Amino acid sequence: MGVFNINEPIIFGMPIVLNPIYIIPWLIIPPICAAIAYGFTAFGIIPPVFLQVPWVMPVGFYAFFATGGNLLAAAVAILNVVISFLIWTPFVMLANRMENKNS
To answer: 31-35 long-range contacts, Cβ below 8 Å, gap at least 24?
Structure first.
């Protein structure tokens, strides 16, 4: 996940490219977050996105404005960020441990 939808520093800076440990969360997190957002939308808890907003909006603001000002949609977007963080954390810690062993 990038800041303001700019992902290159994450992709090439961590690096996710050519890193077998980071590929796992990189591939599993988007479907999980999409399923959570879809579930909230399908059950009518949050409205669907119906407004086009600039792509560089931060996470919570993007969902808030795209749904016409729904605070719960912003909360779901932030929930997805928290879930993403929780999934990424063990993989980053593992990669750091492996890097320390190699040094």
So the answer is: 32/83, 32/87, 33/80, 33/83, 33/84
- What pLDDT, on a 0 to 100 scale, did the predictor assign at position 56? 83
Instruction: Take residue 7 and report the two structure tokens written for it.
Output: 């992902």
Interatomic CA distance for residues 66 and 28, integer angstroms: 25
Domains in the chain, number: 1
How far out from the chain centre does Cα 16 lie? 15
Q: What are phi and psi of 80, to 5 degrees?
A: -65, -35
Q: Does residue 5 sit within a domain?
A: no
Count how many residues are written for the chain: 103
**In this prediction, what percent of the chain has a pLDDT beyond 90?**
62
In a domain, 35, yes or no: yes
- Give, to the nearest 10 degrees, the angle between helix 59-66 and helix 71-102: 150
